[in-house]
Amino acid sequence: MKKLLTAGAAAIALMAGSAAWAEIRIAHVYDITGALEAYAKQSHIGLMMGLEYATGGTMEINGEKIVVIEKDTQLDPAVGRAMLAEAYGDDNAHIAVGGVGSGVALAMLPVAEEYERIFVVEPAVADSITGEAWNRYIFRTGRNSSQDAISNAVALGGANVKIATLAQDYAFGRDGVAAFREALAPTGAEMVHEEYVPTDTTDFTAAAERIFNAMGKVEGDKKLFIIWAGGGNPMGKINAMDPGRHGVQITTGGNIIAALTAYKELPGLEGATYYYYEIPQNPVNEWFVKEHFARHNGPPDFFTAGGMSAGIAIVEAIKKAGGVEDTEALIAAMEGMEWETPKGKMIFRAEDHQALQSMYHFRTEVQDGKDYGVPVLVRELGIEDMDIPIRNKR
C-alpha cells in the first residue's frame, strides 16, 4: 500500500508539474497608478489584444496556455525593480513587458539581466534604455527618443529655422531634447534655447517668458517644440499667452487622443507621430480598429497600438524559438526578427534590440464630429527614411 501511495503521489506531482510547465507566464509590470495611468491602461488593453490576435483568439501557443500577471510599479523606480524581481522570482514569469515611465523602465533593466530573462520595454522612450543602460535581455517594441527626434526634425527642420524646446526634467525629456538637437543639425535648423521644468508643472508662465526672451534675440522661422508626457497641458497654456506676438509657432509630436484636444486650437500644426488610428493602412490595423471600436466604444490610441505590437512580437518570438524555457533561444529568435503590427512591419535591430518602425509626418486639421485636432498624414517616414543611431556601447 505504501508503494502504491508513493507511486500515486509521484504521479500527482508529475501531473501538477506538467500543468505548471504547460503555462507561458507573461508579466506586465507597468505604471497602473500614477501620473501615466492613462498610458498604462492603453498599453495593457493593447497587449491583451496583441496576444489574442497573434494566437488566433486561443491565447495558447503550441497547446500551452498564456497566463498574464499584472504588477503595479506605481511610477516609482524602486517599486518597479521590486515588482519585476517578484515577477521573475516568485511568479516564474518567462517574459516581462512594461515600463511606461522611462525612469521606472531604466531602474528595471538590471533585474532582467540578473534573472537572465527577456524584458520587452513598452512604451518607455528614453534612448538610454537601448543605449548605455541596455543589456542583451532587453528588447523594445516602443519607439525611442531618436525615432521621435529624427522624424520631427525631418518634419520641422530647414534652413533659417530657429527652435526652442520645452521638456520635462527627467530621462524622457532630456534624452528627447538631446536626440532632437542631434537630428536637427543636418537639416540646417538651429536649436537656440532649451527649457526644462519639473514633471508636475502646471504653471508655465516663467518658462514661457524665458523662451520668448531667448527667441526675441534671433531672426528666422521661430518654433517652440514641446516634448511632454502626462498632464499639465503646456501647449494649451503657452498658446494662451499668444506666442505669435513673439513670432513663435508652437510645434510638437503626436500624443494620445485626449491630449489632441489642445491641438484643435492650432490647426496646421505640424510634427511627427508614432500612431493615429486612421493613418496606417494594413490588415492588422484594420482588425485592431474594428475590434477596439466594438469592445471599447472608441478607437485605439497611441499606446494601445504599442501594447498590441508588443503582444504580437512576444507570440511570434515564442513560436520561432519553440517555447519559453530557453532564454538564449528566445534572444536568437528575436534578434533581427520581423513581424507585422498595426503600424506595419517592425524589425528588432540585432545590435541593440530596438524596434525599427515607421513614423508619420502629420498636419492637424479641425474636422466635424471630432473635438480634437486630427493628425492628418503628410507622409510616412519608413524604416529606410530614418538613420537611427546605435547608442549601445557594449
Automatic annotation (TrEMBL):
The keyword Phosphoprotein does not apply. Residues 1-22 form the signal peptide. InterPro entries: BCAA_transport, Leu-bd, Peripla_BP_I. It comes from the Bacteria. Keywords: Amino-acid transport, Signal, Transport. Residues 23-365 form the Leucine-binding protein domain. The keyword Coiled coil does not apply. Belongs to the leucine-binding protein family. PANTHER family: LEUCINE-SPECIFIC-BINDING PROTEIN, PERIPLASMIC BINDING PROTEIN OF ABC TRANSPORTER FOR NATURAL AMINO ACIDS. This is Substrate-binding domain-containing protein.
